[in-house]
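Read as chain and fold; for instance:
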Amino acid sequence: MPHIRPVTDLRNKFSDISKLVHEKEEPIFLTKNGYGDMVVMSIETYEKMNMDNMIFEKLKEAVIVAESTEERYDFDKISKEMREKLIERL
């Protein structure tokens, strides 16, 4: 369930807001005059959200590429090649 607070809490109860965003690891929705105005979240939550979005975008790209070609890769073969390249670099 989303946490919704009036925007005045940001000024009047900043430490409560800060504690809540870190404990719950979720954004807090702030309202102004009864309407949604902004969202506050911890840096950790923001970074996780960005990482999740990046992974989702990469997966979407992979699906598009996979659907556009019949070429498939053998996991064992690719793994072996990657191991060999890593050993060469070491």
